[in-house]
Structure formats: structure tokens, C-alpha cells
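Note to self: the last two entries modelled the partners one at a time, which told us nothing about the interface. This time every component goes in together.
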Amino acid sequence: MSHRISVRETGAAFVAEPGELLLEAANRQGVRLPHECTFGACGTCRIKLLQGRVDYEEMPPALSEEEANAGYALACQARPCSDLVVSVQRAKVVPAPERRQAVVRSLREWTAQVVNLELEIEADDLQYQPGQYMNVLLEDGAHRSFSMASAPSGRRVDFHVRRIPGGRFTDASLRNLAAGDRLQVEIPLGDFRYHAEDYRPLVMVATGTGLAPIKSMLESLMDDPDCPPVSLYWGARTAADLYLADEIRSWGERLYEFDFVPVLSRADAAWSGRRGHVQDAIAADFDDLSEHALYMCGSPAMIAEAKARLLQLGASADHLYVDGFTFQHALAV
Ligand SMILES: Cc1cc2nc3c(=O)[nH]c(=O)nc-3n(C[C@H](O)[C@H](O)[C@H](O)COP(=O)(O)OP(=O)(O)OC[C@H]3O[C@@H](n4cnc5c(N)ncnc54)[C@H](O)[C@@H]3O)c2cc1C
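The predicted structure of the combined assembly is written out below.
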């Protein structure tokens, strides 16, 4: 039996055939729902079910049991079991993506793995929400995603790119890029962004270059009288991987109340800071997260583990925002 799905915010409606995935049905009928990885790992396609039920062949990694119980679903993996009314509210305010030319302005090797790439995007009216990302378009039409690491301000945008050994873009192409080179990009994308309407203290969790979108959000909150208290947990393997630690320590001067906690999983004996995984450090510092808003960015594996732990500490699925750095080579282009 087919099921009718309506989207509350836009009034759009479409039909899912028996056994069809919700996102596939939407795409087939030209209804645009935000999505990225399409295998349930990144969480971009999270929607809220206002009426009706869905099921899954397998529970997707980016959806916890608590979130499912709170009425959330991942459109790319969910199969409707009844007519549905869904909300995509989180995604509604972002500007539409456009193809642009970008000029490389600088490339700096921050560590053996992390490159700071500064691009000038050729657009007079460049707009994005801190937390969003762009796609670099490759010659054959494939793309690679990178989050804006700076708050919107003119045409120049900063990126933190982790080199993946053997990676087509982050290794091969990046080694040959130089100032003045041009890239084709699609910008802005994604619905990871700051939710000022929450009015809650923030716990922000990043691993590695997952810091990038969080930095963009925090830069946009600097000197803002409405900035809530912020605790930033940044996970890495060794002290050498904390490529921006000194700069981050200085953010306290411009954020209303700021606590920075770097956490190392493979620290040497010289490290006197926190050890282990970010979620362990948060669990040691907070008994109850029910009054906080949580932002998480990093590998899908970290997000799945940390999210489960933070929900156990009382975090609300309604105030939990995640961005998973999935790999594009596994995706359809
Ligand atoms: C929304 C979004 C935002 C992102 N933002 C950032 C960002 O700001 N900074 C950043 O450094 N990365 C970011 N990523 C991850 C980044 O897009 C990938 O690392 C990148 O696509 C790798 O491209 P490549 O061509 O170098 O590797 P590929 O040629 O695609 O892959 C080469 C090999 O490496 C593996 N691989 C690819 N990516 C990763 C990875 N991230 N971790 C581990 N193994 C990998 C692949 O499975 C493959 O075996 C983001 C991803 C998404 C979805």
C-alpha cells in the first residue's frame, strides 16, 4: 500500500510506494529534503514525525533510540508504514546553494595532516550560516565537502582540511594547489547551524577538523551580548594535533563565558591535560545535560558513540545538533 507524506513547513506532498525509502520517494517527485550521505551516517536528513510511523531495515547509525523515541527519523533510511506528516523545520532558513568560482588565496600546513586553506569565493553577496559547508566540484562531477571554518565576512573563507593519505582531493589535488589556482564550488550546503532560539548554555564537541564549523559558529558569537556560556571539548590523538589550541584559548576574551577542554586519546607523558575520549571528559564534568544545547562535529563513529553517551546524561534530542564528516567516495555523485 502506498502512503502520502506531507511536509508541514512547505505544504509539499508526495507518495511513497510500498517499501520505498522516504527520501527516494521525495527525490522521485521533485520534493527537496536536505540530505548528504544517504546511508544513515551523517544525520543531515533528520526530520520529525508529527503523524505516522516509519521503520528501518537496520537502525541507521546516526539515529539513536532516544531520538527515534522522541519522534525523529532519518529520511534516507526510513520506510513509511502509514501516511505521514513530517517537519523539516531545522533546515528551512538556509540560503539556496549556488555554483561559484573560488580562488585559492593561501595554503598553510598547520600539521602533517591539517592544511589551512583560504579561498576567495567570487560572489558579491556570499551568504552562509556558520556551521554550513561547501562542495568542491571535481572534474568528473564528483564532489568533496568541507565546512566553512570562519564566520561569514566578505568573500574570504577559511577551511581546515585533513589530508587523507591517498585521498583524491585532500592528498593528490591539494599537494598541487597553489595561491591563485581556481576551484569550482557549490556553496552553502547543510543544515548544521547555530540555534539562537534555544537560549541554553552550549556544549560543543569536536574531534580533529570537526572543529571547523564549530569555530565558525563561535566566531559569529564573539562580542555578542546574547552569547550563552560555552564549553568546547576538542578531541585529538596527540598534543601536536591540537592545531589551533593557542588561538582557541584567546577566544575567552571575546565570548561571554568560555571553557576550553582539549582531550587527547594518545597523549604522551608530558601532557598534563585531559585524556581519553571527549564524551568521557564531558561525562566527568556534567551530571545532567538536560538544560544544555549540544553541537557535535567529527567522524560518524565519534558522533554515534558520543551522542549515545550524552543522551544518557539527559541531553534533549530537540537540542542536539550534529554534523558527521562522512566520506564522499562511498556516495553517489
Ligand atoms: C558535510 C561534510 C563536511 C566536511 N567537512 C570537512 C572539513 O571541514 N574538514 C575536513 O578535513 N573534512 C571534512 N569532511 C570530510 C571530507 O569531505 C573527506 O575527508 C574528503 O571527502 C576526503 O576526500 P579525498 O578525495 O581526499 O578522499 P577520497 O579519495 O574520497 O578517499 C580516499 C580513501 O580515504 C578514505 N577517507 C575519505 N575521507 C575520509 C575521512 N574523512 N576519514 C577517514 N577516511 C577517509 C576513503 O574511505 C577512501 O578509502 C566533511 C565531510 C562532510 C560530509
